[in-house]
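User: For documentation purposes, I need each entry recorded in a consistent format: the amino acid sequence on its own, followed directly by the corresponding structure tokens. There are two entries in this batch. Please keep commentary to a minimum and don't merge the entries.

Assistant: Recorded as requested. Entry 1:
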Amino acid sequence: MFAPGATISDDILDIGTRRFDEDKRRSMTSTGGTAALCPPSLVFGDPTAFDIPNVSDPAQFCRNNFASVSGNKDAHQTLKFAKGTTTLAFKFNEGIIVSVDSRSTMGAYIASGTVQKVIEINPFLLGTMAGGAADCSFWERQLGTQCRMYELRNRKRISVAAASKLLANTMNSYKGYGLSMGTMVTGWDETGPQLYYVDNDGTRLKGNMFSVGSGSTYAYGVLDVYYRPDLTVDEAIDLGKRAIYHATYRDACSGGINNLYHVTKEGWKKIHAIDVNDMHYEFMEEKKNAMSS
């Protein structure tokens, strides 16, 4: 058992690493006991602390029971994170469109239909959520803090490239800890509109169009057909809207509300929040009229 009233230390971040295993062996050799299997100090319920399993070897317990600890491979763990979402963003001549759904799922169970999957980092910078909701929300909000600190220190707004690099560096430092993130960082800076993809492995890609999530293949099918750099604002909004609708129609893990943003040199603006059920009847009526004419 952990000592009552103890506080968590930095040693928690070493669990599962080579350094932790070496320290554990040294401690067991010197004391002849098994106390070193647990971190030296911990308190449960502290909002500023990480809770770990109250077992003799937390690292081994996580390896045996949580699939994310083993990366992408299936090691037959008890708990497997079944996630689903559809997020997309693309650049065009008039700015950037960011369009997402709002469904949060745990396998076949719909946990929420009103998740805000666009993180408003600052008035010129947006991030999207795909993967683990807690991971994406926490680390992108922490990115917002880093961006604000940069502004205070340098008296200028951070670039999109620098913001995405900060997030990628953070993800790289936590690589192998079981995080689940597939995010896009986008916005407008002094170089113009910028769009980056960052994931939990520390991968960072620059591009003109990305879609992330279980419904991304369906969204890409629509985007690949209708995307053009010279789209008008109305055409771009309609494309973002249709791509999310078709993804939610085919992917059971995507759905809810379509939240769509338009980013320009004046900053981002939220265009609409439309129930995908309403879009379904709108597009079905449009298809019916087209077939009858």
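Entry 2:
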Amino acid sequence: FGKFKGNVNHDCARYGLYLDNQYPRNLVRDEDGFVKSGCEKFTADGKDNGVTPANVIEDELDWHNIFVGQYSMGDISFKRYVSVNNQHSLYWKTSKNFADNVSHHMVDCTIANDSKDPYGRLQVFGPSGPFTFRFTNVTFLGGPVGEAALCAGQHCGLGGAGGPCNVQYILEGVDWSRLLSWQKKIKFGTNAASFGYVQPIFLSRDNVSLGGHKAMVSQHLDGFAEVGCQQQDWQWDNGYACQMPIRRLNLWSNVEQGNVTLKGPGYNTQPNFAAPSHGLNAGIMQFEPMHRG
């Protein structure tokens, strides 16, 4: 991917920074620079073939663009990214865990919107899929926000996007305090398939990023009220805030084997078969054919 540092994109008709689809890997080249091997997602022994250490986009500044970001990208980190009055502060559909196990998807970033400027909305449309999205030391400034300051799962479950949609967003050192008053902070799913509004979860290990809570699940998982989780207001997308550890569970299969029912805390409730729950609130897990999980 090379060195990517200190670029500025502004007032573009559509995208500012646009990385499209990027997954840097450990390529093997011949003496003339032609690729011999290494394009596969995994090595012959099953290890992640993502480049280690991860590539980094550093000190990027984007302002007055409709979109900033990419559709699909992994093993690349945004470091000290600054967004000012873009229509979409960041646009990202799918990603993965880092092969180096230490990098963060976004770290030391600033997402800002000047309300005196009629152009722009403060809204990060983040990716989804069966991975952990690390969102660290990010400051939100101003407003107004669009759908929410941070939306988990842009287009999840639809063509060209991630799935299954049970992404884990780990928030550390996220500063919401300088948003305009009465702005929505998070949203479970955006422009997604129905299950994209139910499956994402937000996690935190500090006392500020999730309003002092350790985890939040979607408002549609109403069974979590029975295990001590407290429903929040619209600023937190009416999600259920919990002090217990909550994690995703993925099951994989080459063929559809019918519904699987998950039993246990949080799912001991009557199934709601209306959209978008479709029984997910009671642990009824349906096969997701696009990603076979």
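Summary note for entry 2:
The radius of gyration is 19 Å.
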